[in-house]
Design a protein that fits this description.
This protein has 238 residues and is mainly α. It contains six helices and no strands.
Length: 238
């Protein structure tokens, strides 16, 4: 590579590192949002739930920063091959992080409503455990991205099945509660919405892990694992 080519390469690397720093910052905020949303539900802390809702604007703003940075790099550096793949991964990962942040915000919205209702069994604590699992998956997925560790990314992908199973178990519990006591129908519907949102978070974290695998190996992983029980009751939306 001549001196001009090396200069362009080093400039691209520097720009990419700046975009990756935005991803890391965004990921930290999303991790905190997941944990705070789950904690606010478990403790019925409406103030904390409102903080999660307000904080989502910062996550959205960071996604815009990532997209602007990526567009600027494409315009200035005209990346090809692996460099372009790395840049597209930045864009896709930030989009997935933004969606996880939205689901955390949605959880917080429901918490404000649930704070006025009677608790249903141990659902709040179970949802907090499920959210913690998703947060740990996200932490590992981001670590895998920054380190270029396809094996760690694959382990994150495998763990999504645990989240699916936790969701299925909760869904069945909510059905049982609603059938046994009609007074629990409204809170159970809200709780199911939160459980479904958390399961969807796991799907987006899995997408991040798959982007890491593609970035490192050049091949998207095959859909070898089966998703957990897919229920028909889905008020969460896309």
């Amino acid at each position: 590579m001549n001196e001009h080519g090396q200069h362009i390469a080093s400039a691209f690397d520097r720009d990419l590192e700046e975009a990756q720093a935005l991803i890391a910052k965004m990921g930290g905020l999303v991790e905190a949002a997941i944990l705070d949303a789950a904690k606010s539900l478990d403790t019925r802390d409406v103030e904390l739930a409102e903080q999660v809702r307000a904080g989502d604007k910062r996550i959205d703003a960071l996604e815009e920063e990532v997209n602007e940075a990526a567009a600027r790099i494409i315009a200035l550096r005209a990346p090809v091959s692996r460099d372009l793949r790395a840049l597209l991964a930045v864009i896709k990962i930030s989009a997935n992080l933004e969606r996880v942040g939205d689901y955390a915000k949605n959880m917080a919205k429901r918490t404000v409503l649930l704070a006025e209702m009677e608790r249903v069994g141990g659902a709040d604590a179970a949802l907090r455990r499920m959210a913690r699992e998703v947060q740990e998956m996200l932490k590992d997925a981001l670590d895998a991205y920054l380190r270029g560790d396809a094996d760690l990314a694959e382990s994150v992908r495998d763990r999504d099945l645990d989240v699916d199973q936790m969701y299925t178990s909760l869904f069945r519990e909510f059905l049982t509660f609603m059938m046994e006591d009609p007074r629990t129908i409204t809170p159970c519907m809200h709780l199911h919405f939160i459980a479904k949102n958390t399961e969807r978070m796991g799907d987006h974290v899995t997408s991040i892990a798959e982007q890491v695998i593609y970035l490192v190996t050049g091949t998207m992983p095959e859909e070898s694992r089966q998703k957990g029980d897919r229920t028909s009751l889905d008020p969460a939306g896309a």
